[in-house]
Specification:
There is one protein chain. This protein is mainly beta and 140 residues long. The chain has one domain: Cathepsin D, subunit A, domain 1, CATH 2.40.70. It contains 1 helix and 12 strands; from the N terminus they run ββββββββββαββ. Strands 3, 4, 6, 7, 8 and 9 form a 6-stranded mixed sheet that branches.
């Protein structure tokens, strides 16, 4: 199995990854969220490709405020796998400028066939069929 590390703090999932854009290193934290319906970021500079929505889409934040998503795209990233950082990417990441944090959707990960395993205050995102997958996975 291939594991991606995350930490559980006060009952909430936390997921850390490093992001890179246009060969200039920028580091961002991503939090694994079991309530997020999509991967979301407030950082427009992370996108390597981007498409505007025809109209902004409303999304309910954790505090029940309605905030708007303006588009979606692809973000290059590195994932911590088996003790090392490897190139990867996220697709269909929503741009939500008022969000204030980056969210990795555990819901989307599960819909794509990944398993969320929590044990000893650690959370791991894994695949059962990791042998056939490349090191650079599509984390849609």
């Amino acid at each position: 199995m291939k594991f991606h590390s995350a930490t559980v703090v006060d009952g909430a999932y936390g997921f850390v990854t490093e992001m890179f854009h246009d060969a200039i290193e920028t580091r961002s934290f991503w939090f694994a969220d079991n309530g997020a319906t999509d991967h979301m970021t407030y950082e427009d500079n992370l996108f390597v490709s981007y498409t505007n929505f025809e109209e902004p889409k409303p999304d309910r934040a954790g505090n029940n405020d309605i905030i708007l998503a303006y588009g979606y795209g692809r973000i290059n990233t590195e994932m911590f796998v088996n003790g090392k950082w490897i190139p990867s990417f996220l697709t269909d990441v929503w741009y939500v400028p008022k969000l204030g944090v980056n969210l990795f959707s555990l819901f989307i990960a599960e819909m794509k066939g990944y398993c969320i395993c929590t044990e000893n205050s650690q959370s791991r995102i894994c695949t059962e069929n990791s042998q056939s997958q490349s090191e650079s996975e599509d984390w849609q």
